[in-house]
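Lab notebook page, bench 4
Experiment: in silico fold of construct C2
Operator: M.H.
Input chain length: 208 residues
Purpose: comparison with the prior construct
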Amino acid sequence: FMGSLFHISMAQAQAPADPKKFNGPQLQALLAADDRINAGGLEEADFKKVGLLRGFIVGVHDTISGDSGCTPPNISYPDLLELVRERVKEVPQYIDRSVGFFVNTAITFKYSCLGAKKGASESSPRLWTGQDLKKRLDAYDRAKSGKPLPGDGQTVAELTGLVLGVAYELSVFNACPPPKTTTAQLVEAVSEVNKKNPRYVEHSAAVG
């Protein structure tokens, strides 16, 4: 079902889930989709691309929040998106690097925890809660059962982006899934783990 949800081929959906191969040119394509939406575009494929981008940025941010990135308590997704846009413009020579590289360095170069004010680590927020994750997992279940609601395609794309964003940050510490693990399998694993551990809803989406 992944191909119908994201307007990508089944082969791409089943490709190994290596977020480090999710690269700069792909990031540029997602940012272009966001531009088209902001200009009034209504293409469903663009909404899904924007969802994938949003989920990835939040996944990276919420994983490093309070550790290597100490963003202010009132930081918002649009703020983070603008940081990423600026980062892409600043280092065009690195365009072949991973999306995770651009997102991580956009946040940590601006809001490093090194030298931050006392208490910055504790007050650095996580944007999505366990309830936010549950909302996206519910959309995933509906899509998987063939009964999606309007907007579920974008919501499931956000879930996929979130999973890939968290996976990127974990891969930095060599916490990697088996080589042949696919993106679809990672998302399914997150779904199953949360069904078995409903109390995860009390934590941030990145923890779930």
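Observations: Residues 87 and 105 are 8 Å apart (CA to CA). The chain has ten helices and no strands.
Next step: discuss at group meeting.
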